[in-house]
Every structure is written in structure tokens, then in C-alpha cells.
Amino acid sequence: QVQLQESGPGLMKPSQTLSLTCTVSGGSITTNIYYWSWIRQPPGKGLEWMGVITYSGNTYYSPSLKSRTSISRDTSKNQFTLQLSSVTPEDTAVYYCARTTLGSSMDYWGKGTLVTVSS
Length: 119
Fold this sequence. Notes:
Elements: E1 3-7, E2 11-12, E3 18-25, E4 34-41, E5 48-53, E6 59-61, E7 69-74, E8 79-84, E9 93-101, E10 106-109, E11 113-117
């Protein structure tokens, strides 16, 4: 059974860089039929896809967030990490990591972690 767990700070100040890590168990992030995504959901709003890292380490980002987003991985720890720079209160959201199939469906999700940006 694949499990994903997000970890990171719950409270950020504006202009800081958010860093969240997703730890994957029950499967390898280098398995060549899966990608690994970050998605967020602001309070009262819908899900927003932020970006993805492939099994080979290539990355793709949402155009609206591309200038502030970076996704990397540590294959030795079976983790992948999201960095979002220059956060504002509009970045307040529950952040999720998810396994993504080559058909772009997300079949396993972490429970999500709430990040609040406030001065």
C-alpha cells in the first residue's frame, strides 16, 4: 500500500520561502510509471495543481506559479520537496502531495498539511 505524508511548517510570514516534503512509503519515486505531484486548496476554493516531478527527475509547473515554484527529490530518502518563494497570504492553503499516473490521474494522496501565511 502506497502512503504519502506531507511535512513542513504550518505558519509562514510573507516573503518567506515555503518548503514542504512528501515522504513516500510502499513504493519508489523512481518507478517508471508514476509521477509525483503537488496540489493545494485554499480555504473555500478548489484544488490547484502546482507541479510535478517525474520518475526521472524532470519537473513541470503550473504557468501561474512557475516563477515561484521548485520541486526536487531525494531518491535515497524516497522524498520529494516543494519550494514556493515569496509567499503571501494568498498562498494560505492545504497542501497535498499525490502519486500521479501517466494518464494524469492521482491515485494516492497524502492527508494534506495546512500552511498559513500571516504577518
